[in-house]
């Protein structure tokens, strides 16, 4: 199995889950180790003889083709991406390159390695290219809208989500045109260990630890649907094994919360752990809103439940407490 972006947040959790749950699986991680990825994220599995690690860029067509030739992958799980919306607003170029061009390079490599010259798929039933994407491709919801379904029209509104949407369309085109065994997954906001400092939950916890203002964009009413990262990893595993090619699967946490409510809950958890600094809520600070800030995401995972037997199982209160306990001592 090739796992791109395996040194990042979700990728590193996924690699550990896969090595634990599939005793004969060989995993090769390809990761550029940008500011967002690091080998330490794979520390727990680094010595595992079934893991190999290649530092490199998914946009490097020769490197990717060589890896396909050497390892004879039958599964690709494609996580590698520039993932932070704020960065895509201040500097979109890297997002176009990695998220769109990089996905193209991987799809081409899989097409060349897996499909014969006459375009017929060789052993397609045993192969899967899982393209990991986001609910942000569907745009934003109002309070009254029903949650995103797989049939919801794409309406990306940030440079980040536009590049993810572009890559989703490309992956889908490779299925329809060449018969590449593609499965697309779109999930909501993940939370849990090893997420980069720049994201919302680590930012709130770090600000509490350092007694600095907690930046809340706009009025804090924006809603996200929080999914425990390991629950997501199990969903991707199932999509790779049981997913129908040419189909997409939504994963959501069944857990819509306004940002301000999440920040307050973290403050209360910090009050218990660091009572000398209580109340942490005094640090909450409303700051200038993100440009084009999507107001609400919510994801229906009915298809994943019906076809993959997947549903999120982690209770948000427990997951949030575990998240605080993982980050707080590190800051
Ligand atoms: P992340 O930023 O934590 O990790 C991305 C990883 O990709 C890093 O290890 C980085 O070094 C690597 N990378 C970046 N550019 C690369 C390149 N050109 N070549 C090789 N490696 C490269 O991201 P994440 O939060 O773990 O997200 C993983 C995937 O899941 C992304 O595709 C993202 O769009 C998607 N996703 C994330 C979330 C979320 O809440 N985090 C939600 C939905 C979808
Ligand atoms: O300091 C902050 N203050 C704040 O109010 C930060 C960093 C964020 N926010 C808000 C913006 C969002 O409404 O919190 C919410 C979550 O922000 P992020 O952690 O940046 O996540 P989001 O923009 O929702 O995108 C995430 O989920 C979908 C991932 O980063 C994406 O890669 C994924 O596709």
Automatic annotation (TrEMBL):
Gene3D superfamilies: NAD(P)-binding Rossmann-like Domain (3.40.50.720), UDP-galactose 4-epimerase, domain 1 (3.90.25.10)
Catalytic reaction(s) noted: dTDP-alpha-D-glucose = dTDP-4-dehydro-6-deoxy-alpha-D-glucose + H2O
Keyword Acetylation: no
A Pfam family hit: GDP_Man_Dehyd
Cofactor(s), names only, from the UniProt record: NAD(+)
Keywords: Lyase, NAD
Protein family according to the UniProt entry: Belongs to the NAD(P)-dependent epimerase/dehydratase family. dTDP-glucose dehydratase subfamily.
Stated name of the protein: dTDP-glucose 4,6-dehydratase
Origin species: Magnetofaba australis IT-1
């Amino acid at each position: 199995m090739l796992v791109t972006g395996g040194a990042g947040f979700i990728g590193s959790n996924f690699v550990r889950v896969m090595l634990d749950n599939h005793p004969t699986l060989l995993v090769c991680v390809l990761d550029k180790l940008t500011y967002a990825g690091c080998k330490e994220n794979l520390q727990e599995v680094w010595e595992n003889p079934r893991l190999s690690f290649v530092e490199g860029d998914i946009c490097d067509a020769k490197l990717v083709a060589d890896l396909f030739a050497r390892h004879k992958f039958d599964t690709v799980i494609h996580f590698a991406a520039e993932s932070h919306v704020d960065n895509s607003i201040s500097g979109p170029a890297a997002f176009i390159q990695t998220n769109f061009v990089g996905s193209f390079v991987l799809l081409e490599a899989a097409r060349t390695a897996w499909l014969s010259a006459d375009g017929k798929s060789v052993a397609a039933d045993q192969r899967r290219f899982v393209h990991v994407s986001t609910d942000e491709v569907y745009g934003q919801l109002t309070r009254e809208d029903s949650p995103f379904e797989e049939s919801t029209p794409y309406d990306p509104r940030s440079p980040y989500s536009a590049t993810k949407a572009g890559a989703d369309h490309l992956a889908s085109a490779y299925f329809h045109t060449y018969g590449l065994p593609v499965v697309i997954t779109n999930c909501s906001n993940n939370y849990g260990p090893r997420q980069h400092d720049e994201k919302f939950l680590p930012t709130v916890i770090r600000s509490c630890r350092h007694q600095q203002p907690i930046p809340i964009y706009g009025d804090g009413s924006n809603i996200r649907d929080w999914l425990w990262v390991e629950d997501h990893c199990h969903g991707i595993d199932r999509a790779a094994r049981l997913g129908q090619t040419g189909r997409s699967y939504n994963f959501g946490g069944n857990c819509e919360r306004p940002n301000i409510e999440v920040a307050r809950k973290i403050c209360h958890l910090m009050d218990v752990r660091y009572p000398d600094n209580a109340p942490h809520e005094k640090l909450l600070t409303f700051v200038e809103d993100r440009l084009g800030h999507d107001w609400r995401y919510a994801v229906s995972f009915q298809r994943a439940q019906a076809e993959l037997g997947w549903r999120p199982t982690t209770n948000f209160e427990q997951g949030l407490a575990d998240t605080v306990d993982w980050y707080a001592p590190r800051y």
